[in-house]
Amino acid sequence: MRHGRLFSLGALAFAVCLTLTACGTGDVGPGGSDTGNSTQSATPPDDKLNLNATVNVRVALEPASLNIFTTAGVSLDQALMDNVYQGLVTVDGNAKDKIVPGLATSWEQSADGLTYTFHLVQNAKFHDGSPLTSADAAWSLQQQIAPGSKSLRATEFGSVAEVSAPDPATVTIRLKQRDTNLLWALTQRGGIVYKSGTDFASLDGAENGSGPFRLAQWNRGSTLTLARVDNYWGPAPKVAKVVFHYIIEPNSANNATLTGQTDIQTGTDPSLLQAFTSASDKFDVLRGNSTDEYTLAFNEKHPALSNPDVRHAIRQAIDKDAIIKAIGAGIRIGGPVPPQDPWYEDLTSIDKFDPGNAKKLLAAAGYGNGLTLTVEYPNHYVPALSDVLVSNLKDVGITLNVHVVEFQTWLSKVYKNHDYELSVVIHAEARDFGNYARPDYYFNYDNKQVQQWYRDALTADTEDARNALLKKAVRQVSEDAPCDWLFLVEANTVVRKGIYGVPQHETNNRFPLTKLAVAK
Questions:
Q1: DSSP strand E in 61-111: where?
Q2: d(CA 24, CA 487)
Q3: Separation of alpha carbons 461 and 450, rounded Å
Q4: Nearest to 152, CA basis, from 195, 182, 110, 190
Q5: b/e burial code for range 256-269 (CB count within 10 A of at least 16 → b)
Q6: Which of 140, 400, 484, 485 is the most exposed place for a label (fewest CB within 10 A)?
Q7: What is residue 365's three-state secondary structure?
Q8: pLDDT digits (tens, 9 = 90+) for 17-55
Q9: What are the residue boundaries of the Solute-binding protein family domain, all occurrences included (predicted)?
Q10: pTM of the entire structure?
Q11: What angle do CA 427, 431, 433 make, to 5 degrees?
Q12: Which residues are bridge partners to 401 per DSSP?
């Protein structure tokens, strides 16, 4: 779910990954397990590969639409970003989200920070065969900043004053003020380069991207097939097709991999990995970073939850280690950002598990005789998490009713209408801290100091200054407790032997296919 300025301000980031997989950083997280990343074997030379192979990939959640301009949900980014659609720049998930060239080979920033100049690759084409030029890139960004833009990412480009194409290979972006988020925003959906004049209403079934794969077939409720673009401007993909299989239930996903229906399984339930780790001659298990934060949100418009003592009591009543044990893997973080963000710090000491103090806080807030709350809980999340929440809160005098809902209902009821008391959902989109600087976001959290630090971070002169401001803001958010961050997910990806070049990190956000390869 997206909308947003810096780090997706306004973007609800869901990896609606139904298996509570956990997020690894290569270290032992506070209260978490060893998440050391496994490595893949080097890809063999082309004469050892089946260059006409089809790779079948299990993913969890299917997009509601393929219109990447207007449709929310990271399942679209997972399938289409860098594969079907491209921007001037992209991110390298293997290098802590380093910004790297995409359709631009290089770029410069002026000394005053107000002008960015991008130099395009040569011979790039759209899937209809027409050349991609700077005029297309400029037009695409102009659609983001146009009054009344329908783009989900339009607000990320509020600093942009003008976009121009001084020659066919050059794009110039002029800003109203410094924007430390501009390059990051360009790596996301808002930076996609469309063919000039694209009818965005048609994108649900008629893409015309510039990436190495084209949309071949979408069997709603089952599979999405991407086919190699033979005249792709960059290095040719080493597989002919990739089929995404949308399999929600974890055991069904395991069976699909074990029986050969799928070659790669993303979002593998950590409690079900034994079937693959015990068959190391047939499968590899890749552990990677994620940005998937399982978040318990508090609606601050609710009379009880408007009291910070109640919010802190709930946080202190919840045993994160018990949740991680029940789920099978995870990392405690204590705040709203993952370790790969430059403004991360370990905040697990804030509202650490202390049911005795939780009872005192509830009594001070006037709820010493008990409190009843309802949590909106998407139906594709496993019951183990809600079971721990119910048990922990009961221990301090809170009766928790679990209202299980379809995810589309959650989107309407919670995200859109703010009609809830508590809510559990995965916030999965990378660098989405800006949500906490939006008083209209579904948390209804409104801290003017956090908002000011965030605005100042946007216009900071240096990355160090930006990071320092955001660290202060992140800590303040945790201290204010608009949410409880239950754990960070570890990306467990199962790969059949003989498959190479599989994405390893942040696989719920993006799943680039250009390096996939299959042995003969």
A1: 89-92, 98-101, 104-109
A2: 11
A3: 19
A4: 190
A5: bbbeeebbbbbbbb
A6: 400
A7: coil
A8: 333 333 333 333 333 333 444 678 999 999 999 999 999
A9: 98-445
A10: 0.82
A11: 70
A12: 374
Tell whether the model's pLDDT for residue 221 goes beyond 90.
yes
pLDDT in tens, 387-439: 999 999 999 999 999 999 998 899 899 999 999 999 999 998 888 899 999 99
d(Cα 165, Cα 171) in Å, to the nearest integer? Answer: 5
List, in sequence order, every beta strand (DSSP E) within 324-397: 371-378
Query: Tokens standing for 86?
Result: 């491209």
Q: Helices (H) and strands (E) in the chain — how many of each?
A: 12, 20
| Both structure tokens of 238 | 């080493």
Residue 27 CB neighbour total at 10 angstroms: 12
Q: Which residue in the block uniquely carries the two structure tokens 């979408």?
A: 218
Q: How far is 178 from 186, CA to CA, in rounded Å?
A: 15
SS3 letters for 437-448?
HCCCCCCCCCCH
Domains delineated in the chain: 43-84+211-282+497-519 (3.40.190.10), 86-202 (3.90.76.10), 291-489 (3.10.105.10)
Q: How many CB atoms lie within 10 A of CB 354?
A: 16
Tell me the two tokens of residue 151: 């783009």
Q: Cβ distance 490 to 290 under 8 Å?
A: yes
The whole-number pLDDT of residue 29 equals: 39
**What SS3 class is residue 484?**
strand
Which two three-digit tokens encode residue 365?
Answer: 């807030």
CA distance 12 to 34: 29
Inter-residue contact 353 to 382 (CB < 8 Å):
no
